[in-house]
Amino acid sequence: MVVTINGQTALYGIIGNPVSHSLSPAMHNCAFAELGENSVYVPFPVLDLEAGITGLKALGVKGVSVTIPHKEAVIPLLDEIEEVARQIGAVNTLVLKDVDGKKHLCGSNTDWLGANRALSEKMNLRGAHVVLLGAGGSARAIGFGLLREGAQLVLCSRTESRGRALASDLGCLWHPLDDAGSLEGDVLVNATSVGMQPEIQVSPVSKVILPRFQVVMDIVYAPLTTKLLREAKAVGCQVINGLEMLLYQGVAQFELWTGKTAPVELMRQKLYQATGNTLTKAGK
After folding, report:
1. pTM over 0.85
2. Which residues does the annotation mark as catalytic?
3. Domain carrying residue 61
4. Residue 171: which region, alpha, beta or left (left: phi > 0; alpha: psi -120 to 50)?
């Protein structure tokens, strides 16, 4: 599928620093082409965020993904922010709107939708007991989404101050990461970078606790099968790799931008291809 660029092509992209490694262009461009959308999605490395936002409006960019380090800093620069994103305190999606002849940027957050949809394919989240590892931006969005879906949440983190602050915001219990070995539940979610390349032989928790969980999800996708997921699968857990959350947050973005149903399986296939992984018939 080839995207043809012409005078009517709508422009989308991702802003952050760095963005050259982003998998989002492969995922979104294949979706635009599949649905016959005259649109293209490109990476925008942005150092000066305020100037970048002005430029997006001036160029009429229809929508963008927002990644590190701009997810929180972009909020005061927006004309409008959806309530869920405001509650989370972070934005990963912008939509350009025409309001009374002026360009307005509206901020949303689809990270929590991505995590919830990936997990919901394995189990009913309402009433599920979830142990969430981490206290950064990803953990905040995932934790908010889990609670919104009716799950019961316990947060574990290495840094006490950040962990307690996030647990207070979410209204859930906090434990030091070293105490994770005493916890159990239905779902374990790693929202830290532990296990990411190059430290691929590291796991955030000991494998002895993994049989206490039915589902284990890791947001790390480089490598696709982390040590945590490898050990979880070995003891019979259902596992969810990091590409699934990335996929479904992107699906939500695409549908927000276009109002059309995203070609999920094609987008999944392109993500796996972009990371050099083989997509099995089972899908994950």
Report:
1. yes
2. 71
3. 10-109+245-274
4. left
